[in-house]
Specification:
Blueprint lengths: L1 H9 L12 H9 L6 E3 L4 H8 L9 E6 L1 E5 L11 H4 L5 E4 L5 H12 L10 E4 L2 H9 L5 E5 H6 L7 E4 L8 E7 L4 H10 L2 H9 L6
Parallel strand pairs: 4-5, 4-6
Antiparallel strand pairs: 1-8, 2-8, 3-6, 3-7
Keywords: Metal-binding, Molybdenum, Signal
Pfam family, one: SBP_bac_11
Protein name: Molybdate ABC transporter, periplasmic molybdate-binding protein
Amino acid sequence: MKQLIALYEQQSEHQVTLISGSTGKLYAQILNGAPFDAFFAADTIRPQKLENKKHIVPASRFTYAIGKIVLWSPDAGLVDKQGQIIQAMTFQHLAIANPKLAPYGRAAQQVIESKGVWKQLQSKIVRGENIGHTYHFVKSGNAALGFIALSQIKADKTINQGSYWLAPDTLYDPIEQQAVQLSNTVAVSDFFRFVQTQTAEQVIRDFGYDVR
């Protein structure tokens, strides 16, 4: 999102202030009256709920990205290309985002369940509030490895450092990410139009997402 904002501001008179947080927490803040103009969620559930509650500009909801999940470690020799380390459990801590709050956390749980070791791994799993916290757990060494977004190691240029396994998208529900307008201003409408241009979509792809 930072790269999209920077590109947008280069060609627009409008400025964008980014406020980051878990999708669940930002959703709760919006319901409690937080003065946000737009909401870029990491799922479809909260944008749909806001639409049902008539909290959004009509017809503004759209899918801006489809996320991909990877198992990543700064240790170049730790994660194999088939993700078998999950079943081997030869590590002390595995980080995932909180499945109750974060779509990437739910996806991580589904991948682990597909390997048949969700219950066995409970004592080794550490949960981040969101995908950003989860990445920090792993990068800082507080967890040996973790399920994060492919976009994170692409954005941070660590994709060629350490080791990772790109989980097949057949193992988890699509991480479809939607955005909604919360205020009907010229600036917000202009930014939403920009995000749906081919230029913006290419940036989104370059950072490890799919687009519709």
